[in-house]
């Protein structure tokens, strides 16, 4: 697949953040006791932050495995309204190296809890038109329960811990949003 | 007398809007309580008082609450101001 470009246009570049490699793919889990007759496929965690439009097809293809009977997906999309106000557009920013590390921790936790094969977490950054996907999570597993539960855990934990921010722009104002799951600022 | 070091402070989301900058290098004691560090930063940017009850630090990319725990810092360390998150 083509790897990409955390486009510099969506960040303020005076930030001296070391931008992490845009696409990180590695083997997170080496299955023990390889049988010589068994061509075991390495498990992958695929994490990407991008200013490009997300594709459900692309992300679900990445986790396909002949060892798996299930792929579970979560697609988060941007809403067009908030408390009666019309949302014109949305903008996401992230603390990139840390956000990627936090997602990697989530992948690692998932592998301790469920027997899953591949995990893909893609998050959109920059300006996102209403109704487009802001996040896609895909997990494959031999049987459906593991990947269904893992996807649910992944989105809940991401909302609580991964340093990403969303600003909604309305017709006459704007607002930084707050996830109810955010662990240090649960109430006003 | 605790010696000082130069750390990089990163501002995100609302904190970047309030300060008008995304990052700056500041001189701080090598040993400092998280809350004292916040107070030093707030002195530089008084507008941050509005969000002090809602933010958390990330020190070398690990979360640290604005409490009384002692931070041991070295020059070059990265300290991010993390307002409430809204990813997903």
Q: What is this structure, in a nutshell?
A:
The complex is a heterodimer of chains A (188) and B (88). With 188 residues, chain A is of the alpha+beta class.
Provide an overview of this structure.
The complex is a heterodimer of chains A (188) and B (88). Chain A is of the alpha+beta class and 188 residues long. Chain A has one domain: Alpha-Beta Complex (Aldehyde Oxidoreductase, domain 3), CATH 3.90.1170. Helices cover 23% and strands 35% of the residues of chain A. Chain A has 3 helices and 10 strands. The longest helix of chain A has 18 residues, at 96-113. Chain B is an alpha+beta fold and 88 residues long. Chain B has helices at residues 13-19, 34-44; strands at 4-11, 23-29, 31-33, 56-59, 62-64, 70-72, 78-82. In chain B, strands 2-1-7-4-5 form a 5-stranded mixed beta sheet. Chain B has a two-stranded antiparallel sheet with strand order 3-6. The termini of chain B are far apart. The interface between A and B is medium-sized, with 35 and 25 residues.
């Amino acid at each position: 697949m083509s790897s990409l470009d955390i486009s510099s246009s969506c960040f303020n570049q005076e930030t001296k953040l070391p931008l992490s490699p845009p696409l990180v793919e590695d083997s997170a889990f080496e299955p023990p006791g390889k049988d010589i007759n068994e061509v075991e496929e390495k498990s992958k965690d695929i994490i990407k932050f991008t200013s490009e439009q997300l594709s459900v097809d692309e992300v679900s293809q990445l986790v396909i495995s002949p060892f798996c009977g299930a792929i579970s997906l979560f697609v988060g999309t941007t809403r067009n309204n908030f408390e009666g106000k019309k949302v014109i557009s949305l903008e996401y920013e992230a603390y990139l190296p840390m956000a990627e590390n936090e997602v990697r921790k989530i992948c690692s936790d998932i592998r301790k809890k469920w027997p899953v094969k591949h995990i893909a977490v893609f998050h959109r950054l920059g300006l996102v038109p209403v109704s487009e996907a802001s996040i896609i999570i895909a997990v494959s597993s031999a049987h459906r329960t593991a990947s269904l539960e893992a996807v649910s855990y992944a989105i809940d934990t991401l909302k609580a811990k991964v340093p990403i921010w969303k600003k909604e722009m309305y017709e006459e104002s704007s607002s930084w949003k707050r996830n109810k799951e955010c662990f240090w600022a649960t109430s006003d | 007398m605790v010696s000082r070091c130069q750390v990089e402070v990163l501002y995100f989301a609302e904190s970047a809007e309030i300060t008008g900058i995304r990052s700056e290098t500041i001189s701080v004691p090598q040993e400092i309580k998280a809350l004292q560090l916040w107070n030093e930063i707030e002195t530089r940017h008084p507008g941050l008082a509005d969000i002090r009850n809602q933010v958390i630090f990330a020190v070398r990319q690990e979360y640290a609450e604005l409490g009384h725990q002692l931070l041991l810092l070295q020059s070059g360390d990265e300290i991010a101001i993390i307002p409430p998150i809204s990813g997903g």
